[in-house]
Amino acid sequence: MLRTDSLIASAGRWFLHSGIQEPNGGVARYYRSDLARNAPISTEITGYAVSVFLFLHERSGEAEYLDRAVRAARFLTRTAWDAPLGTFPFEQAQSGALAYFFDCGIIARGLLAAWRRTAEAEFRDAAVAAGRSMLADFCSSESIHPILALPDKTPLPYQPRWSASPGCYQLKSAMAWFDLFEVTGETDFLHAYQRALDAALSNERGFLPGDANCEKVMDRLHAYLYFLEGLMPVLDRAECAKAFREGLDRVAAYLREIAPQFVRSDVYAQLLRARLFGASLGAAALDSEAAAHESGQTAAFQLDSSDMRIAGGFGFGCKTGQALPYVNPVSTAFAVQALAWWSEHQNHTLQARRHDLV
Predict the structure, then answer these.
(1) Domains of the chain
(2) What digits encode the pLDDT tens for the residues 259-308?
(3) Residue 282, exposed/middle/buried by CB under 10 A (0-12, 13-18, 19+)?
(4) Residue 142 burial by CB count (10 A; 0-12/13-18/19+): exposed, middle or buried?
(5) What is the mean pLDDT of the segment spanning 188-206?
(6) Among 286, 172, 279, which residue's Cα sits nearest to residue 233?
(7) How far apart are the C-alpha atoms of 312 and 103, rounded to whole Å?
(8) How far apart are CA 226 and CA 274, in angstroms?
(9) Prediction pTM value
């Protein structure tokens, strides 16, 4: 367990000292190690960062993690939120502004996590406003539009790329509605999550493989795991638990097949995290051998370097054994949580909570 603790501490130092979080609190999408520069700040990634900073704070007790979480949350509420439009635009440095349904849900969940820890009403109020805009702007009678063009909030035409089409992966973002119902009691939020759940259960079987190109299938595994994560509020329902168990098996089979050609670190981490969460709720028996393998594969993506912009972060992935030049905050966040939960499982202390899910 000592190695896991050291690994998590190193990843935490990367979040604090690499520069992936800009002074204004926003977090870059990734660091390009070959170009020695950050990608633009991403509102979605900043939402994830709020959650992982809070997770690291609770685990370590170090005050700086809480400070960084609050800084990221205030960037979202005070800089990123477009009050006249009532939405969170995509990466701020881009022209041709867009808003993504998925991003808004991740941000809302991060802000709710910040509110639970700090009791700052600013964070709760912004999350509620984001949830209401998701209902008003993205939902049609047939589907949830994934992308809107701003300022008119016109849905973009759907494209074959998974992130540009409606799909079961949207359930993770829709989980923000479930969380908001718990906070506000507004039944519109609960009904919206239920509609998203019904749609996801009806179409998830067709999401994989979804493409003949194995690299694109690997990308879709990452997205499909969002669907499994989005089931977490309802794993006490037999139909949902069955889909969850079968989904774990499908992802694991594709991952074994494709990994020698192309593998993403976040897929290993998400799969391990889902296994542990499902087992902790009694929804899926834990395959300990598979979990141990996924733990080792996840940990292998942590980077060792004398460069503080790299050291302790997790690489995005590998193609035919060659590491790709992206030090990725979301990959790092998912890996930290998966490995922390794995360590706690081995110590018989795991208490995976849905609200903690990054």
Answers:
(1) 2-356 (1.50.10.10)
(2) 999 999 999 999 999 999 999 999 999 999 999 999 999 999 999 999 99
(3) exposed
(4) exposed
(5) 98
(6) 172
(7) 26
(8) 10
(9) 0.96
